[in-house]
Amino acid sequence: MTKKLNFCIVGLGRAGHFHLSSIQSLDSCSLKYVVDPALDGGTSLPAGVSLLRDLKPALTDPELDAVVIATPTQFHFQNICDALKAGKHVFTEKPLGKTSEEIKTCFDLAEKLGLALYLGFQRRYDENFKALKASITKIGQVRTLKMSSRDNPKPSLDYLKISGNIFHDMLIHDFDMLQFLLGYKIPESVSAFGHAYDPDIEAIPDLDTVVVNLKYDDGLICTIDTSRTAVYGYDQRIELFAEKGMSMAENQRENTVEVHTSEGSLKAPANYSFPQRYKAAYAEEIADFVNGIQNNRLYNVSRDQCLLGHLIADAAHEAVVTNAVVDFQKKYGKELS
Amino acid sequence: MTKKLNFCIVGLGRAGHFHLSSIQSLDSCSLKYVVDPALDGGTSLPAGVSLLRDLKPALTDPELDAVVIATPTQFHFQNICDALKAGKHVFTEKPLGKTSEEIKTCFDLAEKLGLALYLGFQRRYDENFKALKASITKIGQVRTLKMSSRDNPKPSLDYLKISGNIFHDMLIHDFDMLQFLLGYKIPESVSAFGHAYDPDIEAIPDLDTVVVNLKYDDGLICTIDTSRTAVYGYDQRIELFAEKGMSMAENQRENTVEVHTSEGSLKAPANYSFPQRYKAAYAEEIADFVNGIQNNRLYNVSRDQCLLGHLIADAAHEAVVTNAVVDFQKKYGKELS
Amino acid sequence: MTKKLNFCIVGLGRAGHFHLSSIQSLDSCSLKYVVDPALDGGTSLPAGVSLLRDLKPALTDPELDAVVIATPTQFHFQNICDALKAGKHVFTEKPLGKTSEEIKTCFDLAEKLGLALYLGFQRRYDENFKALKASITKIGQVRTLKMSSRDNPKPSLDYLKISGNIFHDMLIHDFDMLQFLLGYKIPESVSAFGHAYDPDIEAIPDLDTVVVNLKYDDGLICTIDTSRTAVYGYDQRIELFAEKGMSMAENQRENTVEVHTSEGSLKAPANYSFPQRYKAAYAEEIADFVNGIQNNRLYNVSRDQCLLGHLIADAAHEAVVTNAVVDFQKKYGKELS
Amino acid sequence: MTKKLNFCIVGLGRAGHFHLSSIQSLDSCSLKYVVDPALDGGTSLPAGVSLLRDLKPALTDPELDAVVIATPTQFHFQNICDALKAGKHVFTEKPLGKTSEEIKTCFDLAEKLGLALYLGFQRRYDENFKALKASITKIGQVRTLKMSSRDNPKPSLDYLKISGNIFHDMLIHDFDMLQFLLGYKIPESVSAFGHAYDPDIEAIPDLDTVVVNLKYDDGLICTIDTSRTAVYGYDQRIELFAEKGMSMAENQRENTVEVHTSEGSLKAPANYSFPQRYKAAYAEEIADFVNGIQNNRLYNVSRDQCLLGHLIADAAHEAVVTNAVVDFQKKYGKELS
Predict the structure, then answer these.
(1) Phi and psi (nearest 5°) for D261?
(2) Which residues contact D321 (CB under 8 A, 6 or more apart)?
(3) Does residue B144 surpass a pLDDT of 70?
(4) Is there a contact between C247 and A257 if contact means CB atoms under 8 Å apart?
(5) B211-250: burial string, b at 16+ Cβ within 10 Å, e else
(6) pTM of the predicted model over 0.90
(7) Identity of the residue in D263, D265, D269 whose CB atom sits nearest the CB atom of C262
């Protein structure tokens, strides 16, 4: 029997709780530490788990194998570096850091030390998007990709203020999804338009509604539209228009009931928000991380893919600010080589 | 160029108007007479059409080729016989008559005189049911057939009082649809349950809600449920459960718009009533009749199929009245030979 | 903090494994014993669980609180009685026993001893059917209920031989679902037709395709159709036709992808079989049992409902054998008083 | 009774035939002339219709009321001017002319002479898009509009060579649909990407796959994607994302049948091409023209809307050619005042 992997979770907010539950459900894992300075001794943790206010003591424990990082964004980079330097495998919520330099530093460290570095791009584990990717063999070369990625409910203003911006906080998932579906492809041009309907978001300043277009040199055009507030439910759909057909991944609904009256036929709404939609995906991403450690598959997202997503977010932001088409390869190409 | 066929319509109610419009849209037809004792000279008819109060004078016109009968039910049989005896092709709304003897008489007359006799079972011309029938090649032997056939809005009490009963007025269409889909098959057993929710219908006495089951000796079981009042729209759906799959014909909707709010996703209701659902089918049935006359294809529904439908209606009625399973072959088999 | 409830599972087949997983996921439970004479010492069980070949030793353990019975059908009754007499709460897969006398004995025992007796009618915990039930407030009095309940894949012949018959093995779930949706209602009449397409099933003798109709004195007519082999996926749908509308619970699909080609639009099939469809329901039924024990809610299905379902299965079987409508109240009414 | 309107159709290709059939079905119209130099005397026309090789003689007929123009594109402008100058009402397929000057000339003529000038933007008469427009009252201010407008089958190369380009030939319908749905709104910025997958189209030179984005000063962002070859069927869908919900108009399907096998659930494809999708809309647009003449409602699309659509097509073309965001108001604003 394989030795159990000992885990530490840093940050026990909403994401941290998902990961706690995922780790406990895996026979191959044992949760040893939870690190969160905001929790006190009265917090109810599973039997055998130690609550720490700081990551350092856990990192000195030679029994600890892996660290799951779910802290506020600004602490990711430091925690990742500390954990890797202590010889621990790392699973982290995005982003790795604020700049492409920080992203490179993380991957270089993991590479040098032979440690796993996994990102919480949970949509890669969604059954619907996996089936969508598989459908490409049926429809041939994708010519137009349309992605709707609309949040519900609107996050708190406190969160939004520290989120970076809508490009690096929300759309970064979509830019990763492009690569999940189509592989590593560097766009030729990036264009984007956006607006802030919410005056509080405008004041940050940030946007709440954005459309980004990417053009590739093989003809592919991708359009991503996003919003912070899809009041009708969490809305994440993708459509692939291709040479031999079209495929779409639709939203999941709360249930399958349809009620017919003289008003029409009413189906249940889409899942309320991401915890409902990605419940299974959250469990699967941790299982994949554990499986990766056990089988020396050290990344779920490559250094190049991670960097490309970050730079596309930079370019889209620039496109809105300058109201111009960004020549991506000219401006960002050198950072990718 | 083929000579135009001259038509007479008897009865200019709702069905009569459909047929008038169908005949006018066909280049191969010319409408010569409309017969309706309830209309007066002020009625607006297309140019060149004579309004008569009685069918007789039209039947003596040697130029007249075909008669379309859309009178109240109780006059069908006499009109059909008169028209056939005068050497005219006949298209008639169901039923041919009140008894199986009358049905046989009509077909015998048409057969002897070599004239076309077509029934207005318009569902046979519905694109959805034609596609459903074609799907059987994909799914193999049908094992269970489920048909929902629910009316909207509820017909007037005056109509219901002279309609015969729900079995011969409404379900007769469904019993014909069974034969359209599966061919001529004599059931082994018939069972049925029904209820009258509407006290006026109960007083007739008739039923407004009925479920009929037919069992065949090869194992096939058919279930038909019907209602006079599907308040959510006209509801005619069929499901075929078969050896290698299942196929369904769903309702048509008023339009394809779907509105998503926090309440759910609302689609437009099914077509309001039969004129909307079967608009194209009504046009096609007259075109088929004309085509049949021109090509010596003298029936759209055979004598045997017509008779079988009528007898199944008798048996289903009996099953409700006696609250017993009717041994169809024993009781009705001899009438079919 | 509440004391943990100690559990014993009897029978570690497919259902037993579901329950094992459910019990482990609940913080309020501790699994102490697994009883299965067919397992040997090499079986991998979670840490701290003892494997027994016989239920008796577990029942003498005063620490044991509850027994989950998932053995082959023929052992249910004895195990239930033994466990209740030992003072343990019982959760059992259906059926309680082979006869209505056995069913009454179980409930009488539980009642007398103040112990919980829960049945594994997992469909009551399905989100879709719960939402369907809730929809009745929108559509008003149900007039026709149509239920499709078709299995996939066909169970093994070994299983079918000891399953009782299709009425008590499969349809019993549907007869329970009627009561879940509509409450305790005694039918007036029961009619049923069936066929065996599979010669092995015919030889048992049993049926693989059945349609059952139930008529109630308030006018309600229910139609249930079932099959052992829905090759296109597990198919459990219910439609309620009512005074003010209609509602339907549709199947769940494997994913939400739709692929459009010139052939048409292809959606993923329905869930493959019951473990996929009812995954969440299986977890919830054990949680409900635990909650029931803790809150002195001792049944999820009442004695009367359980008995009524059993007698309807008897009546439907009789209706097929005799090819007659069964007068349910006359024949079975006295057993229900 | 109103006097019948006498019609002349110029150009009896596919569109001309639609209009011929529409005119014949209207009691208020009489078709007097068909003008087509490519037809010979053997062409079968309805009784009473004269075939001319040139429009002039028809225009001198004082009995003629209205001219329907369905010639190849390059003859539209001359025919429109000739007909208006002769005092005839005009219904014309788009475009009015090749330049905004020609468009203005047509409207100025019609205005001066008090004649009707209607454009064949048939999508305005589609039931689905009308219902979509009506849905805006439920969902509030539109924030993102996504339109897919994909053709099937690919038009002939001969047609494409004289079609102008994809912006003025295809997307012009979509730019009109924007105005139908949202009213007359001048965009702030236009961006577009395109590609030619078909080497013959590339050689014209033209594009076969295009995505256009329009940004408005109130925050609205519209994305239109188009293709000459949607091999899975004619694909015209629109999605409105708004403050209080989202609404979508989906494609119509050939029929409502769904076939379920182990591969999944297959629905009939979308309508094959525009004649099927817009069959009813083609009839309705002529009826609206006739009604407009009778009620002195002289335009279905205003001069400003027509001009704006044309200029957006210019701007989108420019955006692709220059790979830049076009500042629409700066560049084209003056032409609209």
Answers:
(1) -135, -175
(2) none
(3) yes
(4) yes
(5) bbbbbbeebbbbbbbbbbbbbbbbbbbbbbbbeebbbbbb
(6) yes
(7) D269
